[in-house]
Write a structure and sequence with these properties.
alpha+beta, 1403 residues
Length: 1403
Amino acid sequence: MSSFMGPHMTLPHTAAQGALETAALLVDKHLVADSNYLDLSELLKVPSHSQPSTSGQQDFDYPQLADPRLELGSVPELTNLKKVPLPPELVEQYGHMQCNCRMGLFPEISRAWLTIDSDIFVWNYEDGQDLAYFDGLNETILSAGLVKPKPGIFQPHILYLLCLCTPVDIVLLGVSFTKPFESKTADPGNGEMHLLPDPLFSIPTDNTHIVSIQGAASGRIFMAGKDGCLYELYYQADDGWFSKKCRKINHSKGALSYIIPQFLNFSFSDEDPVVQISVDNSRNILYTRSEKGTIMLYDLGADGKGMNRVAGLAQNSISHLAALTARTDRSNFKQIVHIAALSQSESRNIHLVAVTQTGVRLYFTTNPFGQGNNRPYMLQMVHVRHPPGFSASGAPMRPSNVHMAHYDRGMLVLACAQNEEGNVRDVVWGISADSFPFQQQLMETSTTLPIESHTWAVTESVIPQVHERLDPGQSPSPKAEPPLVVTQHMETMRRIVLLSSQGSHLVTKLRPVDQLREILIKSRGPDTEEVRAFFQLHKEAQACATCLILACSKAAVDQEIAEWATRAFFLYGGEPIYNMGTSGPMQASTLGPAGLHNTTFGATPHPGHMPHGGKVYSPSVSTFATPGPGVPNQMSTPNPNYLPPQQQQQQQQQQNQTFPPNVNLFGQEVTYSGKHNGICQYLARILRPIWEHKIVQDFSVTKPSEQYTVVGSTLSGEEVSWFLEQLIGLKDFIQLNSKFSSPLAIDSLSMSYSSTTLQRSMLSGRADQQMEDQLRRRYQAEATGQEKFSLQQIQDLIMKTCEVLGLWKILCEHQFHLLAASLTEDQRKQLRSMTFKQMVVSGTEITAAMITCLVNRYLGDNATTDAISSRLREVAPSLYSVEDATCSKAHELVQSAKLLQNKYDKDKVLKESLQLYKEVALQLDLQVVCQQYVQIRYYDAIVDLCITAANKRDPQNLALHYYRNGEPPEDTQGMQAFIIRRESYRFITELLGYFLNTSAAHPYASNVPVTPGPPPLPDPNMLSAVEAEKFTEDVLRMILKSTDEMLHVALYDWLINMELSEKLLEIQSPFLEPYLKRAATIEQDNLDTLDLLWKYYEKTKDYASAAKILSKLADRQCIDINLQQRLEYLSRAAMSAKSSTLRTTSSTQGEFLHELEEKMEVARIQLQIFDALSRRGDANKIQDTLSRLNSELLDITTLYGEFADPFDLSESKLAIILCAGHHDPSLVDALWQDIIEKELELTIGSPVNTRMATLGRKIISLGKIYAATERYFPVPFLVKYLERKSCEGGFDQKWVFTIMQDVGIPLTKLQEIYDRMFKSKDPCWQAAKKPLHLMGVIYHLLASFTEAPAVVPSYERRQFTTICLDTLASYLVELHAMSSTDPTVRKYTTDFKGLQAKLERLL
């Protein structure tokens, strides 16, 4: 399920988000600065592997902290911690020694060991306790070694293997502890150690004297033989086909001539025991050192399982090359006493360091620089580093008689033997570069400590460090580890253990923060030159960051020191300054002699450092509340991070491309104070291990039955707690000591003018002191305000980071992988790709999703959410607010309501949940909540909640104002409110859509199986069609009761989109008519809206308005309405107008009706023209003409002049002149003649009967239209013309008068027309050679009367009969005058006489 709380209904990029992003950029900036350190090869100025260099002979190689310019001589690098004597039991054992005694250290478990003959004793060198021993051997123990076992071979309780070598046997013993590993920070040395009595393996030495033993991280055991060979003790779980469980392998066996170059000047025939083995576990490389100083290189393979001897260098060759490189006495390089492999975390290019008896360090590489990923193939010396005492003006004291050394992570410890009055004593030298980070060359300090006895073994105690366990599982960095100053807050003091016959001597290596602590304790406060000198040495920002480590400590014993560190932070942290970008810096003074930093303490500048060549003003107003007097108004420190100007410029340009400078409103750069930069630096260093790393990763889980992958956190709850503790300390420090406020209110206009003027005056040298002071005060205020604002952003980031970490800790406590599995696939994909920085700055959605999964887990277990909600509010108030807690409670109520059977109780609980949801409706994720209510059929709550949410998210009803004003695009605020309201209403319309789909579905659709098989189980949540219809009516009724006009608008839009216009018209609401009118106005091209509007008016019996809308639709010029529809619109408009005139007596309505009727008449003619043109054979060629006729109503003149006349549409022209009332008999006759001719032309070649029928239908159809108006239906002309065509075509003599009678022409009129035609003696009949044609037609006409006298009204019948008898008499006279021999004449004479008799009988 998604989060209950939706995004805040504001603009996407809020001010708070912008502050987080800005602060995150500052963290990035300081992380980049902390990454700007050089590799060891670069510090040693080694250009390439083939160009060795030298150092240690200049004063700046070993600067003295006791220099008068620094005054830090009382701060040593090494201090004595404690001396732990040997356990008393061991002292007694010395008396029983017979053959041999050896001592050594196992730093992995904080143990020292002592062998006396065949017995070995192991005890805790920290306190001399937990003495364990093993006496199961019969031979003298020659060497001992502690190694990690190979995984999967021994039982889990065996954490280490103790390898003991005698002249006869090699024995492996199991080592276990009473306190098992509980976490990454667990120290096995804290538990009681047990040596298993029975050896795990025991094999013969084959007469090989094993001098030393060294294990690899992979569990391999290597042994140095006195015979000069390298051996390996190989062991495995079971015997193989050709190998035993445990055996000894000689990796040096065989001829060496083909491996070792001939230029090596030593003889292999002489015995040269291998005395030391050093393994580089990061590169899988092994080195050996022989007693005579020969160094051999072995390649263990990329996987650490191989073995290949690669190269070697003899002592003479090494000394010769070193002397050539350093140009000093060759005796300084003889007798190598120690070698140490350098891991990849210390240097990418230098792989080995060797220490000589005089303290000289020789650095080697196994690959050309830049090819560190390749397998080693050479052993090349690249640098010679002299110890202190070789510079011209340096102290005369230098190391000598070094018999034992230790080197690790840049720290060198030398044990130098001194013989005073027969007493052998040691002086321990400590050399380290930790006090000079970020340099351009290697600069180290040295400290000496006297030891009262001879040292048998020296090593560094292995203490689990925070930075070592905070490993988010990422690939190793391409660079070496940063200087100690970057990680000192995560590390404890390094401890050196020196073992002698009197016990263990523990020496601590001080970090810079420890040095500051010692100075504060010694000085009893910060008001001393030593503290000031510490800030001078480390620079303001770095020293402030170091102060914060002490000031943020919560330990009770550190409270006084924390107070002193806080005071030092403010005393020497500097102030923000302005860089005018013109002349040199205007500062009060600098600490220490000028130029000290330019020659000695040079390094990369840190963020916020003042650029060179800038004019600055330093405000005296402190950003923080200074806890005590003595704050200097202006302060600057010398730059111990010097770079040549050209390099500085390049570096500054590179940083500015990534991180923009701090520019004020006048475009001038502000350089933040050391206090500001120290806070940013300390914050960046706390977050450094996780800031850019992924927060989750996939873990493979293997079970007996399955294997699968889960998403797990890269940090454990314990690790998260560490980060949280550090950040809370910093947050409390800032809250306690800062006076955060918004930047000072400054009149921008006046300040801009005045500051510009003053600046110009100052630059030209014309400003007086008063103007300069005024400008300085203004810049002080602006710079201080900007720094305060920046610190406020940093504080916001710290608080947000604390909340994210606090939430993460809770998630880890609740089985993170199960919670992650509850996310959607997209959310898990997003989570996998997200870094911790992204989680803090922009991970609000994913954190909300994780919180939802956490709360849902409680709800899924039917557990109350009160406790977890309370904790979430306490830990992450911005991620889980009071509103979130309210949502969780409401969700809990909804879940509990599902289990209730009593309807009353269920309704009560649901109403309570609805009330809670309505309280937080402003930020509620309505979709999630609505889905909950749908599942329990609480539909009324959805409507109520959505309305409440819309009103809370738009309290000023800006959406309605935006809507009523036509949705202007420039009203962005109204648009946002409109979108928010529509989004809120969307869930109501989706609910209606769900009901609609359910009610429209087939009643048995839910029973149709999705897949083959048995019938599906009925869904209890499925609604029936009847229920869906009922709920639809209920929801609609609830919506229509609302006075929220925007809700009505959303409903109307939905009904239209779902094509439910009939349902829309059933609604009786005051908002419907404005909605339809607005839609018709805005969407003028939307015909559906206009259709709805006139239908609405008809439904409400507003016929006048309906008629106007219909008339507008008919007149609309568009292709969406065809001509037939326009006629229909006009017809409906006329009907509505008539209905309106019946309800009102307005003359205007009558005129409107008349206008509509005329439009209809013209429109019919236009339709007639359109149909006529459409029937033409060339209709495709006149598509534009047809489209015009079909897309608008045209006037009658246009129809005649542009369509009817050009296309010779006689019928249409006849209709037009009728409509126009135009009287032109000749034109009418011509049009009728043309109509008849065209019809006859269409039937050419057809049978006579077909031609008669076709033309007859045309005359009858048109005659019924025009017969009422004789002007446009000239019967005499038509009868004569048709008779002529009938005569020509051989038509039936009855045809013409018959169709005229069908048209409705009275028989009496036809008799009159024919009689007149006969008496006119038109020669056309003679020309047609049918002079008696009319005589025959008249006979048939009168005969039809005698056969059906009823065709003449009874009141006219007698008179008409008399007229017929009179005309018959004249016709008989005509016939008698003709030739009596013509059979036609005789026939007509006989017929007329018979007809005369019939007529007489009618009288």
